[in-house]
Amino acid sequence: MATTPRNRRATSRQAPSRTSTRTVRARPDNTGVVTEPEPRADKVPFDIDDVLARVREAVRDFADAAMFALAARGHDSLFEQLVACILSIRTLDEVSLPAALALLQRASTPEALASMRPDDLDALIRPVTFHDAKAHQLHAIAVRTRNEFGGKLPCDAQVLQTFKGVGPKCAHLALGIACGHEAISVDIHVHRVTNRWGYVKANSPEATMAALETQLPRRYWVELNRLLVPFGKHVCTGSRPRCSTCPVLESCRQVGVTNPR
Ligand code: SF4
């Protein structure tokens, strides 16, 4: 028998737990569609457990995304994580991580940051995109946390999103890392990769998050961001993804990919 991706997987690995039965559910607001990938003769059935295990192995030697790297260095409070996430918006990790470290080494609590002048705060984060606006946002968050919440942010997504500059991506990621909440954070990498897989079909990060909340097993809700940020930076890149050496090529439907390496 000729060796195909399908029978190669069947003989060398445990059978996937998920069948290829396709389910499509239109969302009430029509912003996203949840879909399991279409069966394809040249692809094995899509098994999220297997795919994420392969991605986990592939990113083992890559640097952690900025917020996970900060948590590993002890900056794991909700306030610190929220500060770091705001700094990371529209900014490369290589830039936002040193800026976050510089700021948190000077002021890691709401009280300390609230006592800084916004201009001094701005000077510490100057390499970051929109540093001026972010300096004022961070200062306002610190002041309100000190005055309204006794210096400790509550682990509450709705409260976090009342702060200017904080959307679902930052609120969810900070809550997942600092408070152990099961929450999915979808940045541009998570959005791009899960849509290329064919695991979701959505035209914005917000719609992708809603779609993932419907079908991604909860045990992966926090880990997904940690895995797919480095995977999206180094393997499933924005232009010319490295499909020929990708560990999930057999499963991935390569939706919209026209010029792979
Ligand atoms: S096969 Fe290509 S499109 Fe699919 S995850 Fe890998 S790099 Fe991305």
Brief overview:
This protein has 261 residues and is mostly helical.
How is this structure best described in words?
- The chain has 13 helices and 3 strands.
- It has 261 residues and is mainly alpha-helical.
- The protein has 2 domains: 5-59 and 184-245, Orthogonal Bundle (Endonuclease Iii, domain 2); 66-179, Endonuclease III, domain 1 (Orthogonal Bundle), CATH 1.10.340.
- Strand 1 (24-26) and strand 2 form a beta hairpin.
- The chain is elongated, with a radius of gyration of 20 Å.
- The protein starts with a helix and ends in a 27-residue tail after the last helix.
- The site of iron/sulfur cluster has 14 residues, from helix 11.
- Residues 193, 196, 235-236, 241-243, 246, 248-249, 252, 254, 257, 260 line the site of iron/sulfur cluster.
- It comes from Myxococcus llanfairpwllgwyngyllgogerychwyrndrobwllllantysiliogogogochensis.
- Residues 87-234 form the HhH-GPD domain.
Strand content: under 5%
Q: What is the third-level CATH name, the topology of the largest domain?
A: Endonuclease Iii, domain 2
Distance between the termini: 30 Å
CATH class assignment of the largest domain: Mainly Alpha
CATH superfamily of the largest domain: Helix-hairpin-Helix base-excision DNA repair enzymes (C-terminal)
CATH architecture name of the largest domain: Orthogonal Bundle
How many β strands by DSSP? 3
Sheet with most strands: strand arrangement: 1-2-3
- If you average the pLDDT, what whole number results? 87
Q: Rg to the nearest angstrom?
A: 20 Å
How many structural domains? 2
Q: Quickly give the structural class.
A: mainly alpha
Low-confidence runs (pLDDT<50, min 5 residues)? 1-30
How many helical elements?
Answer: 13
